[in-house]
User: What shape does this take?
Amino acid sequence: GIGGGTVLGSTIMGNERMKRVYLQPLKAGNYVSNEPGCYKDGDFGIRIESDLVVIPAQTQYQMGGRDWLTFDYLTLVPMCRVLIDTALISPDERLWLDGYHEKVWKSLEGALTSPEHTRTREWLRRATQPLGL
Assistant: This one.
């Protein structure tokens, strides 16, 4: 099916009122969808879809006398490791992914402590391990 971001995007582009409301600069509290994907015409497509909220960024320096923004993930799901070719990612991308997976683990592991969640907890632990070198 089509994700919310795709529907939102097509709705915005087809409606002048929506363009005025939604095609404004981002501000803290806005929700957005991040949907990177790869599609081969007539063959297949794959997309990672994440929902994000815009939050104030903690920066070392002030520039332009204004606050800076960043994104926080609302959908905390591990990225599928078998789809990651580690030879193609930079050290910074590896650090980001390892940090994201650590956040996923820390956010969810406390809810998986009962015996009926043992298999899920073990899967989550494996899925959120650092990529390694």
